[in-house]
Amino acid sequence: MSERFEEYGLGIKCRLSSHCHFLNACLRKKIIPPGFILKFHPGFIPNSRDKVVINKHLHNASLNLIRTSFQHFSSEKDIISSKILSSRNVLRNNSDPNTFGHILDLARHYNSQFYSSLRNIKNHKFRKSQSSQSGHNSVSTPHSSATIPCHPPINQVVLIPPDIVLSPDETSLLCRGLTFSPTPDKSNLFELHQDHEHFYRRLRLLGHFGPHSGSSSPPSITQFSESIIDKVIPKKSSWTPPPNQFPDLEYFINSSRKALPSSGYSFQSHKSNLSSQELSAIKSLSNRTDIVIRKADKENFIFPVDPASCPTFLVTCDVAQLYTVIPHAGGLTAAKVLFESRSVLDPPTHVLIRLLELVLTLNAFEFNSEFFSQISGVAMGTKVGPSYACCFLAHQEFLFFARYSGPMPVLYKRFIDDIFMIFQSPDTDVTIFLDAMSTMHPSRTLEAVKAVSRSSLLVPHDKSTKDIVPLVVGYSPNVTTVVQKTKSLFNSILSHNPNFSSKPIVAYRRAPNLQQLLVRSKLKPIGDSILQDSTTFGTFPCNRPRCKTCKSVLQQPHLKINNFTFKIKSSFSCISSSLIYAISCKRCPDVVYIGQTSRKLADRFREHLKSISNNLGTTVCNHFIRNHDIDDIIITALCNAPSDERKRLTLENKIIFLFQSNKPPGLNVNFSFLLK
Question: Are residues 543 and 513 located together in one domain of the fold?
Fold first, then answer.
């Protein structure tokens, strides 16, 4: 009994000692292990100063918890030590000295090994906790939001041709991969307000139609045919239920709107997952006209390509059904050549070839009470399959290039069965090369890309019927506090209303990644930047004899209203069309009206002049008809606009929000967000 307790007690003491050693090291370094982190998620924190205070208190509370645990383990260790001492005395009194010494040595030996293993585990845990919190100081704990640490590059940048010059910062940026999303330095307030308006519309629709508004009756033939048409040509509705149906909902919407930040177009973010040099590299890479950045189809490769080095053809091709068409004899021959090229022929080549032959020839399966054996190729799921296919193709390419004397590509790269080539020669040479490669082996041909039928892509998907009210906003470090405030208002105002039992689900749109920022489908002309530097931006008179717009045109490259300056980056005239324009006043520097038109600027401005002369009661008319003269009106084009009306209206809304002209003294008093 005493012998077993001696071993058991020493094991418990080892555990307690390792705990005390680990906690003592954490206290010295002020590191909080994951199990001791105290988390607190308030619905809303008014400002960052309160957040710092809360994080500091949480950090101190975590340290106090570690101290309490350390004291508890120390007292437990003292208790178990006294019990071990008493059991050791009992064991000494009931056994001879040799037996007692032997038992004591065995117990100490095993527990010494046990304690060493525990120390290794605890040391590994300590180093892991230390590395995860190495970027935090004694106050900035895991509770607080810190800058995301830079991870080592995992992507490879391939230069075509190799003499392309990239700065170290540009290379470091591209090594992050084109799917990497830089943290936005600004929060788009227009998108934030528009996203909340979409959320309010969803709540109004939920209250108007109820959580289960769909009909449970089976659809008729007419409904079925209409549903097929709707799936092919979906109809988007922007209808919003009238307000004031639910007082609680209107109170929530008004409270939430007041809580949204409204001053200025954006507010700065003080956190970034890129260094200042890498942020500058984004601008330099996006402005470079001497390279084109592309992502490889396979593996993590990024290709900055010089357009001047490949003015003719970029060719890609695929090996048709590679895995299943490799003949056993040809594949084994290629494998034998590869095995014989080893510096150390162990295991012997004939043994490896025999094992590979067993893998290739003993692949069988049963179907419909009949047995089938694979007579060509390699099974798709076999681990040796990709290596076997690459080995076969490499051997065939070696034989092909050894005897081929026709036109060659400048660059030839292959990943398993996908081939990428660059030709600086006529397309006839490309055809000759591809035809020659297709005859490289009787059972293998290069396959061109085939068209996919549109009907195979129009596969209907059933829409989810879950009662979910999503709040989708663009990601930014500053948006989370606003979203938490909206959720807190929802829980306090609408959570008890049975019409709005579904809690809102918050989702964040990903910020633009490097592919969206750097990769362009259309190449910039090399002299484009030179032309832009020599061009004067702004709006200029057309000098037509009967034009009434020329004398009111503002010939400046920018428009300044209050403290906001809009830089004009194109050249316009009175006859320019499809644009966003601004009407301002010479006497009132705070007044501006933002409009859009798909017609000529002069035609749209003529309508404004007509509304003023006829006193039609528009907002522009009401301003310039009182104590103003017709010569006080100024018009300027701001930017080009899409031909699509909805996209043009969306751009107009964004610029209205920029100038804050939807609020007095602005003239866009009828402003409203476009809701889908």
Answer: no
Count Cα neighbours of 58 within 13 Å in the Cβ-side half-sphere: 19
The Cα–Cα gap between 15 and 6 comes to: 14
Alpha-carbon gap, residue 399 to 494, rounded angstroms = 75
Torsion angle defined by CA atoms of residues 470, 475, 479 and 481, in that order, rounded to the nearest 10 degrees? 70
176: tokens are 């992050």
Q: For residue 402, tell me if it sits in a domain.
A: yes
Q: pTM above the 0.70 mark?
A: no
Rounded to whole angstroms, how far apart are CA atoms 511 and 508? Answer: 9
- Condensed to tens digits (0 to 9), the pLDDT of residues 281-313 reads 888 888 887 787 877 655 556 666 666 554 567
Sheet holding 292-295, edge to edge: 156-157, 301-305, 292-295
Judge whether 576 and 591 are in contact, CB under 8 Å: no
**What six digits make up the tokens of 199?**
């959320």
Residue 220 domain-assigned (yes or no): no
Examine the domain organization and report whether 299 and 160 are in the same domain. yes
Lowest mean pLDDT of 184-188, 344-348, 421-425, name the range: 184-188
Tokens 């109004």, residue located: 204
pLDDT at site 225: 47
Q: How far apart are CA 16 and CA 10, in angstroms?
A: 10
Confirm whether 461 is domain-assigned.
no
Which residues, 6 or more positions from 209, have their beta carbon under 8 angstroms from its beta carbon? none
Amino acid identity, position 307: P
Question: Could you give the 3-state DSSP secondary structure of residue 173?
Answer: helix
| 537 DSSP assignment | P
397 and 493: one domain? no
H/E/C letters for each residue in 225-289?
Answer: HHHHHHHHCCCCCCCCCCCCCCHHHHHHHHHHHHHCCCCCCEEECCCCCCCHHHHHHHHHHHHCC
Of 74-78, 92-96, 153-157, 628-632, highest mean pLDDT: 628-632
N-term to C-term CA, the chain: 78
What is the Cα–Cα distance from 383 to 389, expressed in whole angstroms?
11
One DSSP character per residue, 561-573 reads ETTEEEEP-SEEE
In this structure, are residues 414 and 420 in contact, taking their beta carbons and an 8 Å threshold? Answer: yes
Amino acid at 498: P
Q: Are residues 574 and 632 in the same domain?
A: yes
Residue 638 domain boundaries: 535-659
Which tokens sit at 124?
């590994």
Question: DSSP letter string over 97-144?
Answer: HHHHHHHHHHHHHHHHHHHHHHHHHHHHHHHHHHHHTTT--SSS-TTS
For residue 139, tell me if it sits in a domain. Answer: no
Average model confidence (pLDDT) for the chain?
A: 78
Residue 109, both tokens: 């030996």
Query: 259 and 366: one domain?
Result: no
CATH number at residue 557: 3.40.1440
Tell me: do 411 and 502 sit in the same domain.
no
| Of residues 443, 422, 449, the one with CA closest to residue 433 | 422
Question: What span, in angstroms and rounded, lies between the C-alpha atoms of 286 and 304?
Answer: 12
Residue recorded with tokens 């890309």: 449
Tell whether 489 and 592 lie within a shared domain. Answer: no
Number of structural domains (the chain) is 4
pLDDT at 563 over 50: yes
CB atoms within 10 A of CB 256: 20
Is 410 in the same domain as 355? yes
pLDDT in tens, 444-462: 555 545 455 666 666 666 6
